[in-house]
Amino acid sequence: MNPAKQKNWKLLTDPLIIKGAVKLFRYEGQVQGDPTYPVVHVRDPRSQIQRLWSRPEVLDLPVPRFRIDAEYIGDPPSVEVTICNVNDNIDKVFLGDLVKKHGPFEELTIFYHPKNNKHLGLARVVFENVKNAKSCVEKLNQTSVMGRPLQVFLDPFGNSPALVSFFSIG
């Protein structure tokens, strides 16, 4: 047998542990060149009974949802929707009920002026998937809510001019 082609091997004597000994290997259950060692039948040391009785557990791992942030590279999925011309009387609960009809969403934000806390008429919704976001834009765009027609559009990364002007307010 050629030791270079063998898969199963074991070091029987190690010169670092036993001083003056020569390295002795066993390949596939046989010691090469020394017939005094008995042939060992190589087998799996694990218990067969345990393998028969144990059943593999089903892994219930949650699938992570990737967040889109400033570090995101590539074309973002169109799950972010900007709503402009929102009436001052519309609050988060009312807008959430209005948007929930088109599918589940992750985040809903109504923007207020940072100094005087006045309603700016802007809102941003992040949906769980693209289909729900597109449905919201199709159904709510130019729809009159509390007397004002909403302007609804897809806005990946929130780069619309309305939001940019909001964040530039000092």
From TrEMBL:
<keyword id="KW-0694">RNA-binding</keyword>
<dbReference type="GO" id="GO:0005634">
    <property type="term" value="C:nucleus"/>
</dbReference>
<dbReference type="GO" id="GO:0032259">
    <property type="term" value="P:methylation"/>
</dbReference>
<protein>
    <recommendedName>
        <fullName>RRM domain-containing protein</fullName>
    </recommendedName>
</protein>
<feature type="domain" description="RRM">
    <location>
        <begin position="69"/>
        <end position="152"/>
    </location>
</feature>
<dbReference type="InterPro" id="IPR035979">
    <property type="entry name" value="RBD_domain_sf"/>
</dbReference>
<dbReference type="Pfam" id="PF00076">
    <property type="entry name" value="RRM_1"/>
</dbReference>
<keyword id="KW-0539">Nucleus</keyword>
<dbReference type="InterPro" id="IPR044570">
    <property type="entry name" value="Set1-like"/>
</dbReference>
<dbReference type="GO" id="GO:0042800">
    <property type="term" value="F:histone H3K4 methyltransferase activity"/>
</dbReference>
<keyword id="KW-0489">Methyltransferase</keyword>
<dbReference type="InterPro" id="IPR000504">
    <property type="entry name" value="RRM_dom"/>
</dbReference>
<keyword id="KW-0949">S-adenosyl-L-methionine</keyword>
<keyword id="KW-0156">Chromatin regulator</keyword>
<keyword id="KW-0808">Transferase</keyword>
<dbReference type="GO" id="GO:0003723">
    <property type="term" value="F:RNA binding"/>
</dbReference>
<dbReference type="InterPro" id="IPR012677">
    <property type="entry name" value="Nucleotide-bd_a/b_plait_sf"/>
</dbReference>
